[in-house]
Specification:
There is one protein chain. This protein is an alpha+beta fold. It has a domain of 123 residues: OmpA-like domain (60s Ribosomal Protein L30, Chain: A), CATH 3.30.1330.60. Strands 1-4-2-3 form a four-stranded mixed beta sheet. Strand 2, helix 4 and strand 3 form a beta-alpha-beta unit. It is globular and about 45 Å long. About 21% of the residues have low confidence.
Length: 196
């Protein structure tokens, strides 16, 4: 009997302890019809655009935005500027920059700098060309050497190599098709155009 009494008292103590730890739900008084405003949901705030100054703990540094793409009108204006540049011409079977080619490229540097400053993501393509004489393979290699010579000259004038690309077309894209020395001279050239 003592055992049953002890068991009964232990059960009563457990029930009373658990009853004391029950959570009570706050009830809104029914006499107050004013709705309770809830706290506004927190949304992540966007950091202001970087002004170029060093970042502070309250203002994280923004990632660089993607380079701006040219509009069709800007691309047309760029191609018009490049079309006015004169080609650097080369002697027969040579890839060295002649004096007249040096002068032409030197005169073009200001225009090239302006283009690349306005469109830092734009690359310029230096095409190397040859006349029709010689094999396809030989003229491709010669065109490549001519394009590289023009690239090296422009780099020596301060144009960034990262914005220049070269390609050789050998004898595949002549500007003149007559079989004369004057025509062949026009085809032995380095030509600047906008990279796609």
């Amino acid at each position: 009997m003592k055992q049953n009494t002890l068991l009964f008292l232990a059960a009563a103590a457990l029930i009373s302890v658990s009853a004391c730890t029950k959570k009570t739900v706050a009830q809104t008084p029914k006499s107050d019809p004013t709705p309770v405003a809830s706290a506004p949901a927190t949304t992540p705030t966007r950091a202001p655009r970087s002004s170029g100054s060093a970042s502070t703990p309250s203002q994280p540094r923004q990632q660089a935005s993607a380079p701006r793409q040219m509009t069709p009108a800007e691309r047309e204006a760029l191609n018009a500027k490049l079309a006015r540049l004169e080609d650097a011409l080369f002697d027969y079977d040579k890839a060295t920059i002649r004096d007249d080619a040096r002068t032409r490229l030197h005169d073009d540097v200001g225009v090239i700098r302006d283009i690349l400053a306005n469109y830092p993501s734009q690359k310029l393509l230096i095409e190397g060309h040859a006349d029709e004489r010689g094999s396809e393979e030989y003229n491709m290699a010669l065109g490549d050497r001519r394009a590289k010579a023009a690239e090296e000259f422009l780099a020596s004038m301060g144009i960034s190599n990262s914005q220049l690309q070269i390609v050789s077309y050998g004898k595949d894209r002549p500007v003149c098709t007559d079989k004369t020395e004057d025509c062949w001279q026009k085809n032995r050239r380095a030509h600047l155009t906008a990279a796609p």
